[in-house]
Amino acid sequence: MPIKFTKTTHPISFSSLSGHEFERLVFAMLLRMRAWHALNWHGQSGGDGGRDIIGVCDDQYGAPKKVVVACANWKAFTLGKATGDIDSFLKTLGTPPNEVIIIAGSSVSAETKDKIDEHARSKNIAESHTWSGSEVEELLRFHAPSVLDRFFHGVELPDDEKSLRDFIQQLDPVTAIEAAEMLANVFRRPAFETRIGEESSLPAFRQAIGDTISALNTGIWRDREGAVIARIPSIASFSDSVVVSGLRACVDDLNMLRTAFDQGLRDKTVRPCGCGQADCPVFMIDRAYGDQLESLRSRAMRHARVALAALRAGSS
Known about the structure:
It comes from Pelomonas aquatica. This is Restriction endonuclease type IV Mrr domain-containing protein. InterPro entries: Restrct_endonuc_IV_Mrr, tRNA_endonuc-like_dom_sf. Pfam families: Mrr_cat (PF04471). This protein is of the alpha+beta class and about 325 residues long. The protein has 2 domains: about 15-170, Trna Endonuclease, Chain: A, domain 1 (3-Layer(aba) Sandwich), CATH 3.40.1350; about 175-315, no CATH class. It is built from 11 helices and 10 strands. The strands form 3 sheets. Strands 1-2-3-4-5 form a 5-stranded mixed beta sheet. A 3-stranded antiparallel beta sheet has the order 6-10-9. Helix 1 (about 20-35) packs across helix 4 (about 135-145). The chain is globular and about 65 Å long. The protein starts with 18 loop residues before the first helix and ends with a helix.
């Protein structure tokens, strides 16, 4: 049955939430924001060592990166507390994560954000972000309005990690923007962003294409090991003819791309680099064949962009 979109405009007062409730809302939001291979909420059990949530997702090259999230719903956000949290979880983890996100429920000055970034870099953390309360509200409304809709209609979010994860996965998007972002996440991965050239890093390229086709058709998005990453709106969820035709055309082109990649492997126009390592992601591709693959992928992405643009336009 097609999804019916509604709007939520209730104001958010993070100050009225306990630290536990704030963490729970943040965890629900993060589930909708990225394609996580793992996302674990540690703060619920206490003694979290400054890291409330730890996740693993792909970086821009398709390699796994560790992300630590510290929730800071304090009445007065201070630099000392934020850097103290970073120092605390570093002692617990032993090795620096690839990315740290400090999430505040109140305002944070640009100067304080810069100093937190400097402290993170001094601890060999490559990427750091600090989100103020207003930024968190904006992210919630953009990525997870369905969570807010339930929250403000008195449906309490589950209190344990597994139940909360299952609850969020079953929530239909309540706005077209949320549906579009859920779909767009499927394409935010190296298989669709890394340029195909004569020497290309294509880890699990064919698998990623197949996973995307399956996700668009069934609404269940799995990672390369078969674990469910998220549930997204399937093509059958939409009634807008432009959205449906665009997504179907995208799937058709992705099937052609997968077939062409397989053909390239058979006739050696696409071949492993020759280093002998079974898990080496580097492939050598004949220039003309690489251009053909790039053309097919670009066409698929054009269809996806048309569908997503129509979906987003329908929300305005």
